[in-house]
Amino acid sequence: MISKFIFNNQYLFDELPEYDKNLLTGAMKTRNYRKNEPIFTDGTKPNGVYYLNEGKIKKYKVDNDGREQIIYIYSSGEFFGYSAILSNESYGDTTSTLENSVISFISKDSFLDILSQSSVLSRLLLKSLSHEFSVMANLIAVLSHRTVRERAALSLLILHDKYTSNDTPDHEVFITLSRVDLANMVGTARETLARIINDFKQEKLIRSEARKIQITDIKRLIHIANFY
Predict the structure, then answer these.
(1) Neighbour tally for 43: CB within 10 Å
(2) Which of 144, 150, 143 is nearest to 200 (CA)?
(3) CB 159 within 8 Å of CB 73
(4) I need a labelling partner for 117 at 20 to 30 A (CA). Which of 82, 99, 102, 199 fits?
């Protein structure tokens, strides 16, 4: 299957020394978010950074016609929202929860103070930021040259990795993204996506029940996505 490093950037927190972890956890304020709850919006000023303990977050842009384009999905173990603070700019995108989530918040002042004390955190965040930018740039480039069917296959592969945890075998991974969000990720109409999903089911590439999707033939889906 597609290597995890292409799409996942989790476990940065686990790479930190114990002292640095304690600095971060001591500054964190944690709360529960409901599904579809906004976290921050495009154009607003950042007042802190976020760490996703549990759940899924979508990062997206809205075009002039009000259509969403999902450009990144965060999974548990990822920091987000810090690029605007590092660049001293407003948020350039919007984030909201894809499912019930547990998110920790670190105020801007606390974050910058910890960053000044931790060279390891600085290095890891730079690595994380570079990874996230690379994923988005590559994804946009790839999707712009793919058919809708290829984009749908690639999006399902990305989501398969995002919904996989270290202790979850491939055959037990279920993608629970709504059809609306999946269509926004693929960049197509919901009706078109529904036809492609049905084709994939008929070809025995996936199984689906209600909103759950399970990939059953990853190798063939990679071939359809034209991604090697």
Answers:
(1) 10
(2) 150
(3) yes
(4) 102
Nearest CA-CA partner of 76 in 53, 97, 98, 59? 53
Residue 30 phi, psi (nearest 5): -105, 140
Residue with tokens 């919901």: 190
How much is the pLDDT for 1? 42
Q: What is the pLDDT of residues 18-69, one digit of tens each?
A: 999 999 999 999 999 999 999 999 999 999 999 999 999 999 998 888 888 8
Instruction: Report helix, strand or coil for 189.
Output: coil
Question: Residue 206 corresponds to which tokens in the numbers above?
Answer: 């996936």
Q: Say whether pLDDT at 4 is over 50.
A: no
Q: What share of the chain is helix, strand, coil (3-state, %, to 5)?
A: 45, 25, 30
Helix axes 108-117, 119-144, angle to 10 degrees: 110
Q: Kindly state the tokens that stand for 219.
A: 């190798």
The token pair at 100 is 């019930």
Kindly compute the dihedral angle of the four CA atoms of residues 44, 6, 203, 70, in this order, to the nearest 10 degrees: 10
216's CB contacts (< 8 A; 6+ apart) are: 204, 205, 206, 207
Cβ–Cβ under 8 Å, residues 156 and 179: no
Gap between the Cα atoms of 64 and 192, Å rounded: 22
Distance CA 227, CA 204 (A): 19
Strands (E), 77-202: 79-80, 94-97, 101-107
